[in-house]
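Weekly structure sync, notes
Attendees: PL, DS, HV (note-taker this week)

Item 1: DNA-3-methyladenine glycosylase I
DS walked through the input record. Source organism listed as Phycicoccus flavus. Sequence as pasted into the shared doc:
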Amino acid sequence: MSDEASATGREARGEGLVVGADGLARPTWAATDPLLRDYYDTEWGMPVRDERGVFERLSLEAFQSGLSWATILRKRPAFRVAFDGFDPDVVAGYGEADLARLLADAGIVRNRAKVLATVRNAAATVALREDPDGDLAAFVWSFRPADTPRPRTQHEVPTTSPESLALSKALKRKGFTFVGPTTMYALMEALGLVDTHLLGSHRRGSSGVWPS
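Item 1 (cont.): predicted structure, written out as tokens:
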């Protein structure tokens, strides 16, 4: 914890939350770094229901594998430029020149397997529009569970669920890759399919999808 956070924040008793100088309770991971705090306060867990938005988040979750989310968040502007705003139609058409360009771009994560997966997943996203269950956004949201966790501490937050496992398997059948059940659970958290904000957090229940 930074000196500033130590001076202005206190841990909410038994909840794994830090109450900041603004009086708002957040989990430790979102309590100090301004970038993570803003992401937590304004974006994480809010419903995303458009195809491009879901594709972007699915892609970034795949790039995050083995890295910190802060690293990906700091690189997100560069990712958006490099991948043409995560337009699935454009990314699906990438060829060897684009692959070389991306692997030379120090602004993003230059992992060949993850870059290739993003292109492959873009093509799968385009193909999914013909699916009876709808486009990528509708498909992912169809795996929303009947209930959501109610964690009091970060240790109580699940990393997988039956629904994330089912979503992982379903997407793999549709041609997607880098969509393991843990990655898909993180995606479900980010998109608002589940609410894993800790009980007592100022963001708990803020998505409108789940009651607090």
